[in-house]
Amino acid sequence: xxxxxxxxxxxxxxxxxxxxxxxxxxxxxxxxxxxxxxxxxxxxxxxxxxxxxxxxxxxxxxxxxxxxxxxxxxxxxxxxxxxxxxxxxxxxxxxxxxxxxxxxxxxxxxxx
Amino acid sequence: xxxxxxxxxxxxxxxxxxxxxxxxxxxxxxxxxxxxxxxxxxxxxxxxxxxxxxxxxxxxxxxxxxxxxxxxxxxxxxxxxxxxxxxxxxxxxxxxxxxxxxxxxxxxxxxxxxxx
Lengths: 112, 116
Known about the structure:
The complex is a heterodimer.
Chain A: E1 4-6, E2 11-14, E3 19-25, E4 32-38, E5 45-50, E6 54-58, E7 61-66, E8 71-76, E9 85-92, E10 100-102, E11 106-111
Parallel strand pairs in A: 2-11
Antiparallel strand pairs in A: 1-3, 3-8, 4-5, 4-9, 6-7, 7-8, 9-10, 9-11
Chain B: E1 5-7, E2 10-13, E3 19-24, E4 31-38, E5 42-50, E6 53-56, E7 65-71, E8 74-79, E9 88-95, E10 106-107, E11 111-115
Parallel strand pairs in B: 2-11
Antiparallel strand pairs in B: 1-3, 3-8, 4-5, 4-9, 5-6, 7-8, 9-10, 9-11
């Protein structure tokens, strides 16, 4: 079992709709969870962090965490063509909380 | 805008040659990570340093890869000898750790390495 798993997609969503991206992780002691966005040919860019159960909202982005189910998700409301990218879930898996393990990413395409 | 600087951006080399990649972390960040990204494996952690001390290099092939941090403003990743399977994008990332709280890390633009 991989430490961090994501559906590789591609996920196609119409412009203006909600895009939902999911991630599961295997280590129950994980404390910190992140979403990175990576445009083709570019480097990963941190867009959201979440540390406790529940929802965290930042503009059109909402991160959701459920530690009991070992599940973290990212919702993108009012999707725009500029949201088309690969979204990487990252989890700090070690007890020191600094070693980030990444999922393989979900490729999202917003259809105009 | 603070950023992580990596050089070179692109490198094409012949099998067997030595390759050196460099990274300048963001000023004030005490932790530097080296990641490798391929289509098949995604982002893999190779090694990381805190306050210039190596903490973990278990992701790195020891026989050909080496990572060092000669000073707080420079981290290096060397491959000697290089092989075609080393072709990938190598990213450096930096952040501040050690408090038990993780704020996330900033990535550099990467070095795209092609070994022919």
